[in-house]
Amino acid sequence: MSRPVLQPFRRWIVMSTRSISPAASARSILSPTGCPAASSSEAVRAMVDWTSSMAETARDLRREGMSCGLIAQRLGVSRNAVIGKLNRMGVPSPREPGGHGGPGTRIQLGKREAPETPRGPKAVKLKDDLAPAVKASAAGLDAERLAKDISLAQLGGFACHFPVSGHQVAADEHRFCGLPVADRDAGELKLNRPYCAHHAARARARDGQAGA
DNA sequence: CCCTGATTCGC
DNA sequence: GCGAATCAGG
């Protein structure tokens, strides 16, 4: 019948208890023209199953400051896929200046007031001040550099679990901060987050904007 | 020109 | 929900 075909090699691993939902299976692939670019009989693009693992990894990596492009490479997906996914997840844009002031430093949040633009022509551009949280987190970048950068296996019960792998690493080789957590006796905030003071603050700031 | 992220839009 | 195309800025 219509689509006998292709066994999508969408494995991407799935260590989660439940990652592939029936919906995903139903989605299957196909769609001869998934996108305008692929119009015509172009190769079929295996749609990636965004498992929780991938989503979490992407989110963490991005929070580290890794650009979507690198994350995309790591996950093996396109940059737009990562951006789109993260945006859909509600992950804001940390875009910490800690990366490199060179290429791609554009924060400028704030949605366009006129999305009515037919996407082709010029779009509206709005300039909005950065949220204080972003600035604050940026100031704490030093803390990340001071992180122990240890593996998950070495993380203790009170070690910060904030991912700090600033390089491209496999999901299983992810490195974490490892600094003492703050919720033991921070005196200020006592969250259950297994993060140190610095990362806890960042996490809160992040959740505050979009608690996906 | 490169890079970046954001949004729009078809599937 | 997914990703490409497009846009927009550094």
TrEMBL record:
Classification via InterPro entries: GcrA
Annotated stretches, region: Disordered: 90-121
Top-rank taxon: Bacteria
Pfam families xrefs: GcrA
Record's protein name: GcrA cell cycle regulator
Organism (species): Georhizobium profundi
